[in-house]
From TrEMBL:
Keywords associated with the record: Kinase, Phosphoprotein, Phosphotransferase system, Sugar transport, Transferase, Transport
Organism of derivation: Alicyclobacillus acidoterrestris (strain ATCC 49025 / DSM 3922 / CIP 106132 / NCIMB 13137 / GD3B)
Function field: The phosphoenolpyruvate-dependent sugar phosphotransferase system (sugar PTS), a major carbohydrate active transport system, catalyzes the phosphorylation of incoming sugar substrates concomitantly with their translocation across the cell membrane. The enzyme II CmtAB PTS system is involved in D-mannitol transport.
PROSITE patterns per UniProt: PTS_EIIA_TYPE_2
GO molecular function: kinase activity; protein-phosphocysteine-sugar phosphotransferase activity
Protein name from the UniProt record: Mannitol-specific phosphotransferase enzyme IIA component
Signal peptide per UniProt: none
PANTHER family: MANNITOL PERMEASE IIC COMPONENT (PTHR30181), PTS SYSTEM MANNITOL-SPECIFIC EIICBA COMPONENT (PTHR30181:SF2)
């Protein structure tokens, strides 16, 4: 199963609060067969314990360690929010990237996504992407 496929890309999502945004990417991970539903609870608990906003208009919600047994396959979901999602303290995410990584893949996937999103040029391309393929072309180069 591919970590990133077209059904994992959500474009032009209307602004919502961070809890709903995390639920949205978590549910997409469930719907696409990457995780079981309890994983979403772990994503919300992670956000309560520390923000998953990494800067540069990007948040990368993922779960607490005690929920990893609910990961079926490694995968990511990219939700594009043109008007942003407020992650608190003035941090607005235009990209909310839900991730689930099995075993050692978790840190590898997280690291690769963070590396892509450190480059403002890449974030700009992702925020302006008009198709799932454009998103895959930017992120997929590293996965």
């Amino acid at each position: 199963m591919n970590i990133l496929q077209p059904s994992n890309v959500l474009l032009q999502v209307k602004t919502e609060n961070k809890t709903d945004a995390i639920r949205r990417v978590g549910q997409a991970l469930v719907d696409n067969g990457y995780v079981e539903a309890p994983y979403i609870e772990g994503m919300l608990k992670r956000e309560e314990s520390m923000t998953t906003y990494i800067g540069n208009q990007v948040a990368i919600p993922h779960s607490m360690p005690e929920y990893v047994q609910h990961i079926l396959h490694s995968g990511i979901v990219v939700a594009q929010y043109p008007d942003g999602v407020d992650f608190g303290n003035g941090n607005i995410a235009k990209l909310v990237i839900g991730i689930a990584g099995r075993g050692e893949e978790h840190m590898e996937v997280l690291s690769q996504i963070a590396t892509v999103c450190m480059e403002e040029e890449n974030v700009e391309k992702l925020v302006k992407a008009q198709s799932a393929q454009e998103v895959i072309d930017v992120i997929g180069e590293t996965l």
